[in-house]
């Protein structure tokens, strides 16, 4: 009986060797999630110059320049500027200044100069120009000395 079982097993083995092995497949699924995100990288700081009537200190005045920031985003974010909170003025300047930050963007998104938040819904990269204007009212004028103000560009 033992040799009969061995003979049957050997016969089946020889019979199977002549046939192709049956193939099998299985799908492997991959999932991923990209959250809304953006990066801001400062390219240049801005420069403010004074107007001929000494009532405006601005990056828009002749000789002034905007600060530039590179923005890269997945979309689904909002771009804005915060009100100016940090300033340095010469001690001789004792009158109030109204600081107005604005920005515009060119590249994947076209944003006309604004001080308001702008929704960015699509991915892409832009060069953002950030401007700042300080103004004096009435008979007040900018004094001699160094001025500095910080504008926070926000992407969230």
TrEMBL record:
Taxonomy of the source species: Bacteria, Pseudomonadati, Pseudomonadota, Alphaproteobacteria, Hyphomicrobiales
Protein name: Spore coat protein U domain-containing protein
Signal peptide segment: 1-23
Keywords: Signal
